[in-house]
């Protein structure tokens, strides 16, 4: 029996009516422009209305069915992109709303950018058009079974043979097997492979090579190549749609011109020539993707928050007096204090992601003009923001699941799958701890340069104010004083600088810089987090300085910005107190102010998540439905489970009936 009574429409109408701001204008602030709202909306609806892109039974598919479904969706998406002559912007959004990890993510997200970033113009002319037309499918094969974080430790070799003008690509050990590349397992025909370049008997370290893996006629692996999928991953559905792969080379020959030669070259004679560019540009594709991952964090977090806010407005528990209505769980202060900082974080990550995109574009333009001065900062910002936003988002999705009580644990809530898909973001594209240590290294370098009088710039410019920031005391006297951006910025700057200087001083006491860094690494992580949080807070304040249009929009964003900053202050109170930036009393005032801000957000909460403008298809959650008609949807969804296809379950005859009918009795009974 699967029938349910029909629900009423828009159970959240009352919530929407209490909003104090123009939701359409907030959509523009969130998306970045009116054009962005329009194109997002159009692509989301295009996907939602196409039956091929349905995903409501995804978690019930077997791995093989899921993978085939992913191939079907990718091919259909491509067909629609071509038929409708979509622009690159539209095509990217269409893929985003299809919302199923697959080989295309790595093809467009890493294979093409690697060739564009590290290939010569000639190589780009040859390979990029084929990739753009899907005549070849590519992946990014860097990580190996034995080494991922330590890129310099990769073992795969590419040895130049001057007799044939070829490289011989080889996997010398089991641990040198490529392991993890998405799209490699079953779909890719080509890969950008990272391997140690050996020529004239010398090892020149890691370089990129384009290697064909599979026949373009029948998709079979080429001679000398062993490859396959690495196996099932965390969660049902989720990232199992992706064919993360294993790859081994047995002396596979490729032409010399398939080494990506923009940064360094091997001549016909086998001479190694390095161009006049920093060798770290080899890591350029990772920097590019880390930047996109920050924007993705706000997407994933806002989805989870949208589900949790809408459901919390529908769900009622306790508080009924004499048969009166129960209390919406969103009215509980504990629910607000857990949920609203996540709502604020979604907005914060959205705006810092926007800024990071700008920074990345700016750095790329400078690189074109052979100005490499901003590369270290770009690396530190992308690494740090990738790390902080993905860790917080993964935790936040799990918190949203708990905020939805028992129903959050159902696949139909959308939250388990969202978590399972999202959580590897803390590991891929650089383990979050490894990346934070890169930020710490950058900070220690900056601190050491302060002594020599070098003025720090960009996101470390605040460190130049060292005389003041090392000794300042917050002047906050009332809870309301914490609404002053200057008061917040000052304590975040002082905390970050003091933590960095403390680390630098303690490192200098160690026998060597290296030993000191290693010994102090847990503190260095916290110092890096403090610096990155300062960046996020600062960029939110800077966003508020921009021209923000629409009734009440700026006020809402101000509230969210203050919540984001004061929530961090409350969470990391120990840092602020131990560095002497604030007093315990000031910490308590910040908390008092937070409570007031939550009360101001409460009537706007549903409208603030509506501003994300997500379709029900994209949210994929019975709890997060736009109309709030949760219970009939939950009820109907249960009946779709394969277990409910029959009234009597498979296995009854073999295992249940004999048990129920058994004559044997325990002697003691
Ligand atoms: C719209 C498109 C979206 C597509 C998104 C698709 C998503 C699909 C999902 C998943 C894809 C996942 C793909 C992957 O995971 S690919 C593999 C990623 N692997 C890693 O990230 C490895 C991490 N490790 C490293 O990056 C490096 O090994 C390292 C940790 C940085 C250390 O490198 P190394 O040993 O060479 O260097 P040092 O620490 O000694 O540093 C030397 C100096 O170089 C500077 N540096 C390091 N990295 C960079 C960089 N990227 N850019 C610029 N500069 C860099 C470092 O700061 C040192 O500088 P110094 O001045 O101190 O000498
Ligand atoms: C879903 C998914 C998709 C992926 N896709 C791709 C892909 O398309 N292409 C590709 O090439 N790779 C891919 N990867 C691989 C990914 O980039 C690596 O797994 C990642 O870089 C982490 O490296 P690792 O696995 O070697 O972790 P490890 O470095 O082995 O990490 C293990 C632990 O050691 C710690 N650790 C490591 N080094 C240090 C240090 N110096 N100091 C302190 N702690 C340390 C880490 O913090 C972690 O806790 C993917 C991985 C996943 C999970």
Q: What is the topology?
A:
Blueprint: H1 13-17, H2 23-31, H3 34-48, H4 63-83, H5 88-98, H6 103-118, H7 121-132, E1 138-141, E2 157-161, E3 166-170, E4 178-179, E5 190-199, E6 202-212, E7 225-229, E8 245-249, E9 252-255, E10 264-266, E11 272-274, H8 284-314, E12 316-317, E13 327-328, H9 333-368, H10 375-403, H11 415-422, H12 432-450, H13 466-469, H14 485-508, H15 513-519, H16 521-545, H17 553-571, H18 573-578, H19 584-601, H20 605-610, H21 616-619, H22 630-638, H23 652-661
Parallel strand pairs: 1-5, 2-5
Antiparallel strand pairs: 2-3, 3-9, 4-8, 5-6, 7-8, 10-11, 12-13
Helix pairs in contact: 3-5, 4-5, 6-7, 6-8, 8-9, 8-10, 9-10, 9-16, 9-17, 9-19, 10-11, 10-12, 10-16, 12-14, 12-16, 14-16, 16-17, 17-19
The chain binds ligand LLCWR77L and flavin-adenine dinucleotide.
Ligand LLCWR77L binds at residues 105-106, 109, 140, 142-143, 149-152, 182, 280, 283, 286-287, 289, 292, 375-376, 379, 428-430, 434, 438, 441, 445.
Mean model confidence by pLDDT: 96
Count the DSSP helices: 23
- The first-to-last residue Cα distance is 39 Å
Largest sheet descriptor: 6 strands, mixed
Determine the strand fraction and express it as a percent band.
5-15%
Bound molecules: ligand LLCWR77L, flavin-adenine dinucleotide
Question: How many strand segments?
Answer: 13
Q: Ranges with pLDDT <50 over ≥5 residues?
A: 1-7
Structural class: alpha+beta
Radius of gyration: 27 Å
What is the percent of helical residues?
A: 40-55%
- Net shape: globular
């Amino acid at each position: 029996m699967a029938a349910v009574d029909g629900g009423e429409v828009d159970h959240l109408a009352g919530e929407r009516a209490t909003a104090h701001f123009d939701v359409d204008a907030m959509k523009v602030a969130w998306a970045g422009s009116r054009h962005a709202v329009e194109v997002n909306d159009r692509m989301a609806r295009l996907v939602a209305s196409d039956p091929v892109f349905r995903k409501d039974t995804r978690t019930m598919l077997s791995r093989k069915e899921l993978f085939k479904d992913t191939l079907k969706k990718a091919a259909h998406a491509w067909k629609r992109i071509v038929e409708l002559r979509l622009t690159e912007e539209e095509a990217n959004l269409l893929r985003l709303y299809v919302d199923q990890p697959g080989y295309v993510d790595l093809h467009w997200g890493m294979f093409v950018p690697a060739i564009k970033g590290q290939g010569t113009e000639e190589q780009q002319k040859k390979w990029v058009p084929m990739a753009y037309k899907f005549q070849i499918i590519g992946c990014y094969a860097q990580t190996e079974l034995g080494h991922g974080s330590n890129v310099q430790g990769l073992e795969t070799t590419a040895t130049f043979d001057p007799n044939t003008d070829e490289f011989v690509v080889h996997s010398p050990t089991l641990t040198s097997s490529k392991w993890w590349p998405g799209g490699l397992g079953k779909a890719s025909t080509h890969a950008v492979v990272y391997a140690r370049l050996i020529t004239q008997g010398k090892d020149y370290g890691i370089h990129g090579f384009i290697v064909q893996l599979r026949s373009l006629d029948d998709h079979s692996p080429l001679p000398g190549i062993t490859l396959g999928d690495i196996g099932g991953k965390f969660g049902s559905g989720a990232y199992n749609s992706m064919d993360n792969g294993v790859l081994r080379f047995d002396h596979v020959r490729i032409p010399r011109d398939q080494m990506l030669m923009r940064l360094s070259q091997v001549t016909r004679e086998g001479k190694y020539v390095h161009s006049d560019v920093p060798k770290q540009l080899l890591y350029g594709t990772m920097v590019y993707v880390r930047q996109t991952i920050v924007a993705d964090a706000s997407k994933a977090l806002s989805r989870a928050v949208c589900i949790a806010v809408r459901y919390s407005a529908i769900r009622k528990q306790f508080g009924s007096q004499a048969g009166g209505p129960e209390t919406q769980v969103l009215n509980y202060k504990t629910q607000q204090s857990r949920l609203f900082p996540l709502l604020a974080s979604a907005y914060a990550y959205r705006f810092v992601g926007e800024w990071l995109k700008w920074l990345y574009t700016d750095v790329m333009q400078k690189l074109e003009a052979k100005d490499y001065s901003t590369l270290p900062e770009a690396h530190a910002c992308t690494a740090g923001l990738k790390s902080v936003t993905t860790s917080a988002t993964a935790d936040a999705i799990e918190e949203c699941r708990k905020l939805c009580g028992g129903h959050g644990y159902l696949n139909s809530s959308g939250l388990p799958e969202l978590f399972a898909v999202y959580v590897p973001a803390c590991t891929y594209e650089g383990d979050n701890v490894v990346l934070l240590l890169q930020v710490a290294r950058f900070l220690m370098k900056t601190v050491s340069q302060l002594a020599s009088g070098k003025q720090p710039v960009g996101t470390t410019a605040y460190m130049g104010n060292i005389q003041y920031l090392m000794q300042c005391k917050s002047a906050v006297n009332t809870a309301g004083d914490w609404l002053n951006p200057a008061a917040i910025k000052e304590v975040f700057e002082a905390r970050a600088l003091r933590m960095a200087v403390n680390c630098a001083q303690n490192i200098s006491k160690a026998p060597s810089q290296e030993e000191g860094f290693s010994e102090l690494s847990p503190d260095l992580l916290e110092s890096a987090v403090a610096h990155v949080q300062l960046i996020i807070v600062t960029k939110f304040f800077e966003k508020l300085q921009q021209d923000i249009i629409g009734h009440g929009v700026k006020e809402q964003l101000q509230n969210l910005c203050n919540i984001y900053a004061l929530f961090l202050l409350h969470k990391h109170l120990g840092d602020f107190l131990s560095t002497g930036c604030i007093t315990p009393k000031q910490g308590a005032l910040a908390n008092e102010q937070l409570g007031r801000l939550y009360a101001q957000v409460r009537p706007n909460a549903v409208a603030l998540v509506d501003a994300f403008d997500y379709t029900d298809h994209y949210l994929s959650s019975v709890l997060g439905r736009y109309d709030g008609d949760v219970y009939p949807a939950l009820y109907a969804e249960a009946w779709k489970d394969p277990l409910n296809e029959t009234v009597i379950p498979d296995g009854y005859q073999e295992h249940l009936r004999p048990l129920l009918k058994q004559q044997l009795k325990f002697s003691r009974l």
